[in-house]
Design brief:
By secondary structure, the chain is an alpha+beta fold. It has 10 helices and 21 strands. Residues about 350-360 have low confidence and may be disordered.
Length: about 375
């Protein structure tokens, strides 16, 4: 079998790339180790899309149910510092959009079913470091001759290992919890984030299509030493009142509580011969700003731009200059976001009294500067993507 581009990983980013390239007459196949697509779940796990990512989805005809966020209040839970980000500060209607992970995965994956090899994986790649086109051998023995391999297979990327690409890794020593709550005072369009000794607590609206008019999603990251050996359900029960008091709301847990350990990674190089890494395969960050998937979409956008441009000019997809432009445009932006998130995690996780005072005063001062706030909003929204 011969196909111009093979995509390793049938997640949201891999399927987006396939859809966009196919719309530009560039054939792709997807290799996915799972046996099939995720079914719609009970609506626990969500993703937050910025304006740029949302527009990318609309451009390929994908329209998930969403909850709009037009303002975000950020509080220092151990002080009085507060900053408010408003969409109108940058002349926009919304800052971001919350949607269900599995709904988006299904919507973007369904059109790609016929060109996806499920329950499969790339076992080896021949001619990886030669002038010849690579030949891929799948787990089931199938051989595919291709020009380019897009690694969209998430953390612990299999194709990154095959290409011998190396990454740096940092354990945050934190656990993230996510669950759905009933809220007595649901201000539509508003999200909240509280930094405190009890963790980083984010409260965001949910799409109303499933009757969630009085429900919100919580993403709560907690230091492992604070969580200790206490079951997460008990920790939530014993500590959620702190955030209810800070936000002046009443919250009642209405779903299972999902938990996962937090770490980050970033590859030194995104390319090796005909192999290109994108999204979580190339990098991951702390979820405090919900930017992980948006960085993946930005990667996919630049990658598709470079591939489509080379196709129209008659240049080979795996030409080093083509792939290098993608790497240059994205690697520094992703690394900047990673370090920015690490800075905020360290700053708000510090128990130093002087740092607490500085951050409290700093947040209050920052809230008075529309210029600085607009800069942060534009960066997070994808307006300054590269």
């Amino acid at each position: 079998m011969e196909v111009p581009i093979v995509i390793s990983g049938g997640g949201i980013i891999g399927n987006y790339i396939s859809l966009r390239l196919e719309k530009n007459n560039i054939k792709t196949v997807i290799v996915e180790k799972a046996s099939g697509f995720l079914a719609l779940d009970k609506g626990i796990r969500t993703v937050t899309l910025n304006e740029h990512s949302m527009q990318m989805l609309k451009n390929i005809g994908i329209c998930p149910s969403i909850a709009q966020i037009n303002s975000i209040d950020v509080l220092d839970g151990e002080g009085t510092g507060k900053i408010q980000f408003l969409a109108k500060d940058v002349g926009s209607e919304n800052l971001s959009y919350v949607t269900y992970f599995n709904e988006l995965q299904k919507l973007i994956s369904d059109p790609c079913k016929e060109r996806t090899f499920f329950n499969n994986e790339i076992n080896s790649v021949q001619n990886l470091n030669t002038e010849s086109d690579p030949e891929i051998m799948l787990k089931d023995g199938m051989i595919i001759k291709t020009n380019l391999i897009a690694g969209c297979d998430g953390r612990n990327s299999n194709i990154a290992k095959i290409a011998s690409l190396t990454s740096s890794f940092d354990d945050y020593l934190q656990t993230a919890l996510t669950f759905v709550v009933d809220i007595n005072n649901n201000s539509h369009g508003k999200a909240h984030q509280v930094f405190s000794e009890k963790g980083i607590f984010a409260l965001m609206p949910l799409p109303e299509g499933r009757g969630e008019m009085n429900k919100c999603t919580v993403v709560w990251s907690i230091k492992n030493q604070v969580l200790g050996d206490e079951p997460v359900s008990e920790f939530v029960k014993n500590n959620i009142s702190f955030f209810e008091s800070k936000l002046n709301v009443s919250l009642k847990v209405k779903s299972e509580i999902l938990s996962f350990k937090l770490s980050n990674h970033h590859f030194e190089n995104y390319i090796s011969g005909p192999v290109v890494l994108l999204g979580d395969a190339a990098h991951s960050i702390h979820p405090l700003a919900g930017q992980g998937i948006n960085l993946g979409f930005a990667d996919a956008d630049v990658f598709c731009e470079e591939v489509i441009s080379s196709y129209k000019k008659g240049i080979a997809f795996n030409e080093k200059s083509v792939l290098k432009r993608y790497e240059i445009r994205r690697k520094s932006m992703n690394f900047l976001m990673l370090k920015s998130m690490d800075f905020f995690v360290d700053l708000f996780g510090s128990e130093n009294l002087y740092l607490r005072l500085i951050r409290n005063l700093g947040i209050s001062s920052l809230n008075k500067s529309k210029f600085v706030k607009a800069f942060f909003i534009r960066h997070a929204s994808g307006m300054n993507k590269f």
